């Protein structure tokens, strides 16, 4: 009798223990990472790795404490709405965006309840948040200071080529609202420097040749390249065209200078995405996006490629060299 009671007790325990263990397991949150710039066949980009590092700072290790669902638009804006809707349909706990403002708008249009952490240009002017200090709603993130930096890039370029009376501006879509505001700011800076700004567009890589031909025809003595995801992907092609047409250019990313470009004035992209990862982790722990102020970069760097300057026949002024954070020789 005692033996039978013992066997029943043990058999009951064998059923209850797994059930209790499963009941104690916590649900692993899911983050949707919506990338405008990169493709699914690419290695995990440095900015995504930086985002994961920021998550880890808050105790969320991908694959252990959090699951990441990646969606890649490959610089094709028409893909973004469906990708964002897919993430919402999968009931992710948070959406993080990469590649500027287009993926943020796609995510914002897809949901008003799922938290969104962005890295974007002029989030207030573009209608993403009501203010930097109190973003409100379900969005917060990092402003990449694009509107403020573009006039500064033009100023630095005119210091390097003071003889230039015409400066070009390469944009993907000048009519887009965010781009139009940036161009207005650059035009104001050009007027102060007494130079004419000519705007050319290239909405895909097949239009680059025509854009540069137009710049040469309009006698541009320098070029400011807009911070477009497409341009970042095709940086080697753009740098090669600038070299072929002997056109001094300033860019928004250090990667252009490493590819042979002349000069960049920018911030640390990886640091911005790391901070976005920290924000995502804090939201997963219970903080509200509306209570997290939109952050801005505080450190900027000037990088000059002296080898490229020499190839273009330029002498870099000492005033620029002394302010440069890095000189590539």
Describe this structure in words.
The protein is an alpha/beta fold and 329 residues long. It has 2 domains: 30-145 and 268-291, Response regulator (Rossmann fold); 146-266 and 300-328, Response regulator (Rossmann fold). The protein is built from 13 helices and 12 strands. The protein has helices at 2-24, 46-57, 80-89, 101-110, 146-160, 177-192, 208-217, 229-233, 235-244, 254-258, 269-284, 306-311, 318-323, and strands at 30-35, 67-72, 94-98, 116-120, 139-143, 166-171, 196-201, 222-225, 249-251, 263-267, 300-305, 326-328. The strands form 2 sheets. The protein has a 7-stranded mixed β-sheet, with helices on both faces. Helix 2 (46-57) packs across helix 11 and helix 3 (80-89) packs across helix 4. The longest helix is centred in the N-terminal third of the chain and has 23 residues, at 2-24.
SSE order and pairing:
Blueprint lengths: L1 H23 L5 E6 L10 H12 L9 E6 L7 H10 L4 E5 L2 H10 L5 E5 L18 E5 L2 H15 L5 E6 L5 H16 L3 E6 L6 H10 L4 E4 L3 H5 L1 H10 L4 E3 L2 H5 L4 E5 L1 H16 L15 E6 H6 L6 H6 L2 E3 L1
Helix pairs in contact: 2-11, 3-4, 5-6
Care to give the gist of this entry?
The protein has 329 residues and is α/β, with parallel strands linked by helices. 44% of the residues lie in helices and 18% in strands.
């Amino acid at each position: 009798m005692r033996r039978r009671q013992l066997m029943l007790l043990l058999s009951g325990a064998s059923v209850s223990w797994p059930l209790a263990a499963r009941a104690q397991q916590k649900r692993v949150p899911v983050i949707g990472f919506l990338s405008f710039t990169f493709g699914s066949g690419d290695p995990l980009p440095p900015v995504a790795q930086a985002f994961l590092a920021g998550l880890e700072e808050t105790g969320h290790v991908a694959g252990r404490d959090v699951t990441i669902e990646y969606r890649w638009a490959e610089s094709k804006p028409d893909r973004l709405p469906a990708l964002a809707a897919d993430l919402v349909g999968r009931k992710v706990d948070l959406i993080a965006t990469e590649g500027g403002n287009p993926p943020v708008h796609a995510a914002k249009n897809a949901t008003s309840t799922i938290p969104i952490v962005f890295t974007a240009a002029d989030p207030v002017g573009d209608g993403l948040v009501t203010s930097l200090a109190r973003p409100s709603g379900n969005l917060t993130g990092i402003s990449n200071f694009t509107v403020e930096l573009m006039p500064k890039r033009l100023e630095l370029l005119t210091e390097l080529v003071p003889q230039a009376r015409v400066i070009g501006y390469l944009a993907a879509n000048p009519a887009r609202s965010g781009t139009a505001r940036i161009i207005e700011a650059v035009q104001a800076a050009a007027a102060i420097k007494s130079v004419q700004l000519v705007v050319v567009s290239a909405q895909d890589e097949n239009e680059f040749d025509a854009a540069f031909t137009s710049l040469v025809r309009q006698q541009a003595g320098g070029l400011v390249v807009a911070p477009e995801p497409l341009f970042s992907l095709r940086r080697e092609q753009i740098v090669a065209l600038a070299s072929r047409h002997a056109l001094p250019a300033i860019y928004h990313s250090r990667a252009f200078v490493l590819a042979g470009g002349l000069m960049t004035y920018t911030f640390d992209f990886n640091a911005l995405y790391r901070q976005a990862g920290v924000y995502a982790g804090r939201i997963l722990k219970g903080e509200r996006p509306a209570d997290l102020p939109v952050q801005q970069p505080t450190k900027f760097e000037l990088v000059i490629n002296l080898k490229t300057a020499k190839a273009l026949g330029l002498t870099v002024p000492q005033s620029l060299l002394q302010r440069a954070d890095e000189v590539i020789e």
